[in-house]
Amino acid sequence: MGLPPVKTCPTLALAPAVEAREKRRMWVSTRETFRSSDPGWANYISFIGLPRLTEVRTIDPALNPYVDRCGSLEVAAIPEMREALAALPRPERGRAYYLLSLDPELEPPPSNAGFRLLGHDLSDETHTSSLLNCGPWTGRLAPFTERLNQFGLLTLGDAQLAKSVLPEEWPGEPHAAVTVWALYEVEEAQ
Fold this sequence. Notes:
Elements: H1 18-23, E1 26-32, E2 34-35, H2 41-48, E3 55-56, E4 73-74, H3 81-87, E5 96-102, E6 115-123, H4 142-145, H5 156-169, E7 179-186
Antiparallel strand pairs: 1-4, 1-5, 2-3, 5-7, 6-7
C-alpha cells in the first residue's frame, strides 16, 4: 500500500527586483476558514476570550491554515495576482478562500472589483496575530475587542491605534511589534 502523492506547491518569480520587494508588502494565499462548527473552536474561544465570534479570518496560519500547506506568494502588483492565483490551490467553497494580505501603509487598496475587505489584523514578523492568537486583550486594548467585526478584525483606524498602544500594554513582548495588515477575500474570477 503506497502513500498518497505529495502535493507540490508553486514557487513563482513574480516580484521584479529585490529593491522593489523590500518596499512592497503584498501576499496572496489559499486559506482554510475557522468557524464555530470546526474542531478546536470551543478551546480557541476559551483561550481568546471572545465568545461572540463565530468565524475568524486572519493572516495567522495557525488559525487559518494554508490549503495544502502551500504558503503565501508575494505579488508586486494587483495585475500579477492572476498568475499567482492560478498557481495556488483552488479554495473549496465554504471551507477555504483566497486571501490577499497587504500593508496599507505601503500599498493602496485594490481599486477594481473582485476584492472584499475583511478587515485589519495585526501581526508580528512571524505572522502570529497579536489580535487573535496572543490571548485576551486587557487594559487599554480591551475596548478594541468590543469593536471587532464578524471575522474578528478591526477597522484601519482602530488597527493603527492598537498598533501604537500594544508596546505600552505589552512592554518587551515580541508580539507587540506589529504590522497592520489589510485582509481581502479575492473572488476567483480575478
